[in-house]
UniProtKB/TrEMBL annotation:
Protein name: Phosphonoacetate hydrolase
Enzyme type, top EC level: hydrolase
EC number: 3.11.1.2
Organism: Denitrobaculum tricleocarpae
InterPro entries: Alkaline_phosphatase_core_sf, Phosphodiest/P_Trfase, Phosphonoacetate_hydro, Phosphonoacetate_hydro_insert
Pfam family, one: Phosphodiest
Record's keyword terms, sorted: Hydrolase
GO MF term list: phosphonoacetate hydrolase activity
The keyword Lipid metabolism is assigned to this record: no
SUPFAM superfamilies with a match to the protein in the record: Alkaline phosphatase-like
């Protein structure tokens, strides 16, 4: 009888081989398509010919935290509660990072599998995700390992279930603004698979490269060639690979290379008075050098006296705005928790970003024309598997189906190492 694990109203088969789910941060499908066409991803080209090359929709806002938590819970933010990287905490009235496990409203797939005896390994590039991904896991040699590249030199048994990570991987601690931060994730994943052979592994990268390099450019191709080599190693060890992304990425600048920005707080201050409305940008996190906290999704908190309908009409008429709606309608459409979203939701078009006030964003560190994400235009992401899968054309796939596809829909499970 097939063993099953049920969590968040979804059931998953027990893995016949180790399952490795990878979240390639910021991976617009065009990056992989261009790299394969340029001949720098030979393993991936073969994998897609023999396995599954699918497309999926990510969560909007198309940011890191809500999508990673959707992938590892198998549900949208309306269920797990993480609606952005950053939000207005109604309890404190302060704008805070949503990286504390107290904000999580649903258990992870990892927790459910560990309770049934599975061995778990989680490696993320940035430490902002680590506590959320590893929430409520028993850490240690017989339980789970969960650590970040960013703070790999600080990993210890009590907080991460592992120590001496840098020595194990054989790489120095990478700079947070580097491609090496993601490479460390894969190098660690290969070492852990060789040493511990976990039942479930989750590897989550950073989008530093995608913010700087367009698909098919030398910088992008070098990064995807690196990943291709590590995926080949995991495949050779008999792992089932399920590869997706948290969001896509697009150019957000004009023909002269200047960022294309609509500063919402400045507009609302002019229309309603200074600080009467409050704009929250959920892209905000500690790592703003490559995007300046500019993305294509914002929420607006209004006073009770404001005419929301008139503001929706006025915002909708702006060149560069794709979608404006009230909280209730937007949270249904995007499957978001209503209590963690403002009175209005504003989404900009493909090549436009949203800001607060012009004085509130430091863009001096942008080394290249702005590339960013957050909107509907960054919702299409890859979903690739190194095994054939059953016909899934009758459903709209989401990136948070990555574990479901790998565990429940493989046609034939056969180790590539055999």
């Amino acid at each position: 009888m097939n063993r099953k694990v049920t969590v968040n109203d979804r059931s998953y088969d027990w893995p016949a081989q180790p399952v490795v789910v990878v979240c390639i941060d910021g991976s617009e499908p065009a990056y992989i398509e261009a790299a394969i066409a340029d001949g720098v991803m030979p393993f991936t080209a073969t994998m897609l010919a023999q396995g599954a090359d699918l497309r999926a929709k990510c969560v909007v806002p198309s940011f890191t935290n809500p999508n990673n938590l959707s992938i590892v819970t198998g549900q949208p933010p309306a269920v797990h509660g993480i609606s952005g990287n950053y939000f207005l905490d109604p309890d404190s009235g302060k704008e805070v990072m949503m990286n504390d496990p107290k904000f999580l409203r649903a258990p992870t797939i990892f927790k459910a599998f560990q309770e049934q005896g599975a061995k778990i390994a989680i490696v993320t590039a940035k430490d902002k995700l680590r506590r959320l991904l590893g929430h409520d896991l028993t850490l240690g040699a017989e339980g789970a390992t969960c650590f970040s590249s960013e703070k790999s030199d600080q990993a210890n048994l009590a907080e991460n279930g592992i120590s001496d990570v840098v020595e194990m991987v054989g790489m120095p601690v990478p700079d947070v603004y580097s491609a090496a931060l993601s490479e460390f994730v894969f190098a660690a994943g290969v070492k852990l698979m060789e040493r511990d052979r976990p039942d479930l592994m989750y590897l989550s990268t950073t989008d530093y490269v995608q913010h700087k390099h367009a698909p098919g450019t030398p910088g992008a191709n070098a990064f995807y060639a690196m990943m291709d080599g590590y995926w080949a190693q995991l495949d050779a060890m008999g792992c089932i690979l399920s590869l997706t992304a948290d969001h896509g990425m697009n150019a957000k600048h004009d023909s002269d290379g200047a960022p294309s920005v609509i500063y919402l707080q400045d507009l609302l201050d002019g229309w309603l008075g200074a600080a009467v409305a409050r704009v929250i940008l959920p892209i905000t996190d500690p790592y703003v050098v490559h995007h300046g906290a500019l993305g294509s999704f914002a929420t607006v908190y209004l006073p009770g006296s404001a005419d929301a309908g008139a503001l929706i009409d006025r915002l909708s008429a702006l060149d560069g705005i794709e979608y404006v709606s009230r909280n209730a309608e937007a949270c249904v459409r995007f499957e978001l928790p209503r209590d963690r979203v403002g009175d209005l939701v504003v989404v900009s078009k493909r090549h436009v970003v949203l800001g607060t006030s012009q004085s509130g964003h430091d863009l001096s560190n942008l080394e290249v024309p702005l590339r960013s994400h957050g909107g509907i235009s960054e919702q299409t992401v890859p979903l690739m598997v190194n095994r054939p899968v059953r016909d899934l054309t009758n459903r709209v796939l989401r990136n948070f189906d990555a574990f479901d596809v790998a565990l429940n829909h493989i046609v034939e499970v056969q180790s590539a190492a055999q």
